[in-house]
Structures are given as C-alpha cells and as structure tokens.
Automatic annotation (TrEMBL):
Zn(2+) binds at residues 124, 127, 142, 145. GO terms for molecular function: ATP binding; metal ion binding; methionine-tRNA ligase activity; tRNA binding. It comes from the Bacteria. Its EC number is 6.1.1.10. GO terms for biological process: methionyl-tRNA aminoacylation. Is required not only for elongation of protein synthesis but also for the initiation of all mRNA translation through initiator tRNA(fMet) aminoacylation. PANTHER family: METHIONINE--TRNA LIGASE, MITOCHONDRIAL (PTHR43326:SF1), METHIONYL-TRNA SYNTHETASE (PTHR43326). Belongs to the class-I aminoacyl-tRNA synthetase family. MetG type 2A subfamily. The keyword Protein biosynthesis applies. The keyword ATP-binding applies. The gene is metG. It comes from Campylobacter estrildidarum. This is Methionine--tRNA ligase. Its main location: cytoplasm. Pfam families: Anticodon_3, tRNA-synt_1e, tRNA-synt_1g, tRNA_bind.
Length: 622
C-alpha cells in the first residue's frame, strides 16, 4: 500500500506555482507506484479554518464558508485542468473531518496531553504560529515570514509537546524519515533548543472547529495546525487501517517544522503510527526574484501550461531543480528543455524509429540479434534506469529524469555510431534491424518510466509502437530486462520545437484579440454553410478529421478539423456545418486544409456549429 499526500493548501489566496510544483511531484510519485502495482491513494485538498481566512473573507465581503468554497473550487479546478490524478480531494470544513478532529482532541485530553492555562506570546496571523520574544526579528516581526506579530494574552489549552522531544529525536535516528536528508539537522537543532508546550486553542475568533462537547468549553476554537494535520488520517475514512501510515507527506520547506515535529507528536499522543517519509521542497523564484503581486511577476500555472503544454510544464518543474533546493523559473530555460530534451532526445527518437522501420522492414521491429550485437548498449541503459528508480524513491525527481534521458541518449548515439542506412547499403540487414530493435526497446523502457511524468506523450509512444504501458510490461521491460517486438505506425510530433513565446506578450495579444471590432472587420469574414459529403480519420493523428465539404455550385473543398475526440467520422456525413471559407489554405499533418469548420468550446468538449434548419449549401452567414 502507498499513501501520498500534498499539504492541504491554505485558501487565503488562489493557487500559485509552488502549489503546482508540490502537486505535480505527488501526482508523479502516485502514478509511479500504481505502475509498479501498488494499491495507491493520493490526497490533496484545502485547509480552510483560522483567523487569516476569517479576515480574508471579511475583506472581500464573503462569509468564511462562501469564501473557502470559492477558493477551494479554484484549487480543484486547476488540478483537474493540469490532469492531476488525485484519489482524495480533502477539505477541513467537511463534517467527517470536524468530528474526527474533535475525537482526537478528546483522546489527547483524556490521556493527559492537554491542559488549560493562560497564554501570553507573539502570534503571527500569516503563519498561524506562536513565537517567544527571543525568536522574533526586528523587535516584533515573525522569524518565518517577516510580518509584524500580535502580542496575545488569553486563556488557552496546551498540548504537552515537551513530553515528546526525546521520542521525536529517536524517531529521526532510527527511521531517518526526513527528505532531503540535510533538512534533518535543522530540525534536530530546533528541538535541542527545547520544545515548549504548544498553545492549541484560541478564543479571539470564531472560524474553526469547536472543542468536543465532553469538555464543555465552547469559547475555544482548535488551533488550525492541529485541525489541519489530522486531515491526512480523517480523509481515509474506513480505509484508515489499510493505508495509514502515509508513505510520503510532501510539504514546502516553510511548513516542515509543523509536519516533522508537531505532527509526529500528535500521532504519538493518539497512538497512531508515524509516516515513513516527510519530503520538504524549496521555493520558486522568477528569473532570480521572489514572486509577488506588487512586483507583477507572479506566474500562473495554467498560463504556462496553456502556452507550452501541460506535459512540458510538468517536465520542466521536475527536471529543473534538485528536490529540496529553491528553483528559478525562466521561460528561456523552459524552452531549452523542450527543444533540446523533449523534442530532440525523446520525440525525435520516436520519429527516427518509425521512419527507419517503415523504410527497411515494413514497420516490423524485432528483438532478434539485439543481445548478440548490442548487449553493451543494453546493459548501459539498464544501469541508468535502475539508478532512476532509486532516485525517484528518494524524491530526487531531477536525477530520475536525468538518468532516463541518459538511456535515450544511448539510443540516439547508437544510430549515429552504427548508421543503419549504411548497414542497409552494405547488405547487413540483420544488424540494421537489430539496431532499430535496440532503439525501440530503449524507447519503450524509457517511456514506461517517463509515463508518471509525461502520461499522454508516453501513451502516444506506446500506441505508435503497439505495446502497453502497464504493470506487466514494467515487470518485463524494467525489472526482468526483457525485450519486445513492435509494429510501428505513424505518430504526430510529440514535442514540436518552439520559438520563445513570452507569457506577458501572449497576455497582451489575448487582450487585443478580445477587443471589440467594427462591422467592417466582421465583413472581412466569409462564413458559409457546407454539407459534409465524406469524413475520415487521419492516420497517425488522434485529433484530426478530414472533411470533404460541398458548397454552392457543387464546389468541393477539403477541410481539416481537430474534433476527432468528440465525434465519429461516419456520424458527420450528411450534416451541414458552418465554415470560415475565405481563410488562407494551410497544410496540417501533411494534408491541405482550405477553410475552418466552426465549433464552440463547452467545458472540455468541442461542439460543431450547425444551422438550425437545412439551408442551401454555400449560404452566407451574416
């Protein structure tokens, strides 16, 4: 069993690049474990209680629940748009979570780990954290975020965190649960300075979970971190025994202390097992500068994905920075990764294999002769792939991808070294076919391991070479180092090379595109009704349909449209469609297209625009 969690993200604002980074790591790890055959749960969600949320809602003239519903929906929508394959989307406002937290609080209380006293100290609303005077910077400022703290004096319930100091240090020593490993020393230093008992309730605001009825004290709200951390357990419901403890909690470095000190203490208090790993990643800057709204340099994940593609975005974030280090987002570096690695090393290798196999052997690719002729190359590849798996198990996603691309490089170098075109000229057909078989098997092995990062692209590779990305093929190709035969078929380019597309420029273009136009501008468009007399799928493309359209005077035109995922070709024959008919001719996927069929985007679907009633072919829309 494998249970992977991201933090439940605080809903004081909309999701940003750092949120996307954590979630993409979690999604990749979960997909990898499913590929290996592990029964896996992947959780993400939102943290919705606390004074900061109450204030943010009030500023925007919402109730706290209205506000949290709105922001939580934006997080969920983004993960769906980025094709994050989560199993659980958790919210701390769910009733089952509220009841679970109250039950855990009561258990701690009954055990003697919670007591009532007076609290006086400095509180950071932004971090939802308490600090002593000696911990502050610049007189009254929070040591974590730098914002001014508030001096509080109020009645509070305390958790006996000090009782667990030695137990937590022992856990670090025996289980070594912190990733990357250099983060452990920071935690040890913090603990050895002495853990003070933790104030775990507040009375100065209302937006949070009330104490259990058995304690009979309705003035108090449970501390947001005690509330939030238990979401990892409460969300499992009836499957708690099956999936707990978590295999990996993924967090940002700013909340490592809460997850690696407070959380294990809470779990020990209620007699629950501790997670196997807690992995803390760094922050992202943009071209060397911290992102902020005031600077206007905040990167929106959806805009990057829309501009460069979801999978290129995923690949860049995981490949660019060692896990635990801070990363710097640069458009130029993203484009370099796409062109040099995804396009040249990965996509172009598939194109070369398809081209050579069709030219030399009617698309048939055999494993015969590989072990006799190219065993050294195959052994080198397997060394890289085994290292890749080890790196991913330790959350070193960049090294994971680096090793896989070393394997792909072996295939590309083998083609340059042995020159199959010359082998054919020299009548060395066996060597040439074995070389293509070697490269196809390397690509298949690499694609299986790349599929957690590039799921759609790797499925295209699998379809083009006629094999499956599955647990059984993971075992055959990766664990047992077996070889397969393939049958190649055409495939559209996986990652076409791109020129720089500046995000800010694109935003400006979008604004211009949405600007109002004059009637003279509309008059330049010629939109006509045409009848579909034939429609066919285009071989090698999942998106394109090729239409033969009849206009007025029996004029026939060929037009391509990317709606194959939404319509069956045969069902469209005989229908009337609306066509932008004075568009310049274009060549798409090797086929001429003379016009554009109009469709409307509805959610994730494209819907063809058709006249309400049958009209004469060639009728002008005005």
């Amino acid at each position: 069993m494998r249970y992977i969690t991201t933090p439940i993200y605080y809903v004081n604002d909309v999701p940003h690049l750092g949120h996307a980074y954590t979630t993409i790591i979690g999604d990749t790890i979960a997909r990898f474990y499913r590929l290996q055959g592990h029964e896996t749960k992947f959780l993400t969600g939102t943290d919705e209680h606390g004074q900061k949320i109450e204030q943010a809602a009030k500023e925007r003239k919402f109730t706290p629940k209205e506000y949290t519903d709105k922001i939580s929906a934006e997080f969920k929508k983004l993960w769906d748009e980025l094709k994050i394959n989560y199993d659980i989307y958790a919210r701390t406002t769910d009733e089952k979570h509220i009841a679970f937290v109250q039950a855990m609080f009561l258990k701690m209380w009954q055990k003697g780990d919670i007591y009532k006293d007076q609290y006086e100290g400095h509180y950071c609303i932004s971090c939802e954290s308490f600090f002593t005077k000696s911990q502050l910077i610049n007189e009254n400022c929070c040591p974590d975020c730098g914002k001014i703290t508030t001096l509080l004096k109020e009645e509070s319930y305390f958790f006996r965190l000090s009782n667990y100091q030695d137990k937590i240090l022992k856990w670090y020593e025996e289980k070594d649960p912190i990733l990357p490993k250099n983060k452990k020393n920071e935690l040890i230093n913090f603990i050895q300075n002495g853990l003070k008992d933790l104030s775990i309730t507040r009375t100065s605001f209302d937006w949070g979970i009330k104490l259990p009825k058995e304690i009979n004290d309705d003035k108090h709200i449970i501390y947001v971190w005690l509330d939030a951390l238990f979401i990892y357990v409460s969300s499992l419901g009836s499957e708690k025994e099956k999936f707990w403890p978590a295999h990996i909690h993924l967090v940002g470095k700013d909340i490592l202390r809460f997850h690696a000190i407070y959380w294990p203490a809470f779990l020990m208090s209620v007699d629950l097992p501790l997670p196997k790993f807690i992995g803390a990643h760094g922050w992202w800057t943009k071209e060397g500068e911290k992102m902020s709204k005031s600077k206007g340099n905040v990167i929106k994940p959806k805009e990057i994905a829309d501009t460069y593609g979801i999978e290129a975005f995923r690949y860049f974030l995981l490949r660019e920075v060692p896990f635990g280090n801070d990363g710097d987002f640069s458009e130029n570096m993203l484009i370099n990764r796409i062109n040099a690695e995804l396009s040249n090393e990965f996509g172009n290798l598939l194109n070369r294999i398809i081209g050579m196999s069709n030219k030399y052997n009617d698309g048939k690719i055999s494993q015969n002769g590989i072990l006799n002729l190219y065993k050294n190359e195959l052994d080198e590849v397997m060394q890289y792939l085994k290292l890749a798996i080890d790196f991913l198990e330790n959350l070193q996603c960049n090294r994971y991808l680096e090793e896989i691309f070393k394997a792909l490089n072996v295939a590309n170098l083998a083609i340059s070294k042995y020159e199959p075109w010359n082998l054919i000229k020299e009548n060395k057909q066996e060597q040439a076919n074995a070389l293509i078989g070697l490269c196809a098997n390397i690509l298949a092995k690499a694609s299986i391991l790349l599929s957690p990062v590039l799921p759609d692209s790797c499925q295209k590779v699998a379809k083009a070479l006629d094999f499956e990305i599955s647990k059984s093929n993971y075992e055959k190709l990766i664990i047992n180092n077996e070889l397969l035969d393939f049958m190649a078929s055409p495939c559209e380019a996986l990652f076409p090379k791109i020129e720089k597309i500046n995000l800010e420029s694109k935003q400006e273009i979008k604004k211009e595109e949405k600007a109002k136009i004059k009637i003279d501008d509309f008059a330049k468009l010629e939109i006509k009704v045409a009848k579909v007399i034939d429609c066919q799928n285009i071989e090698g493309s999942e998106k394109l349909l090729k239409f033969q359209l009849e206009f007025d005077n029996k004029e026939i035109r060929q037009v391509l449209s990317g709606i194959a995922k939404f319509y069956k070709a045969k069902d469209l024959i005989g229908k009337q469609v609306c066509v932008l008919s004075n568009l310049k001719k274009a060549k798409i996927f090797g086929h001429e297209s003379d016009g554009m069929i109009l469709s409307a985007k509805s959610g994730d679907k494209l819907v063809l625009i058709s006249p309400e009633q049958i009209v004469e072919n060639g009728s002008l829309i005005s």
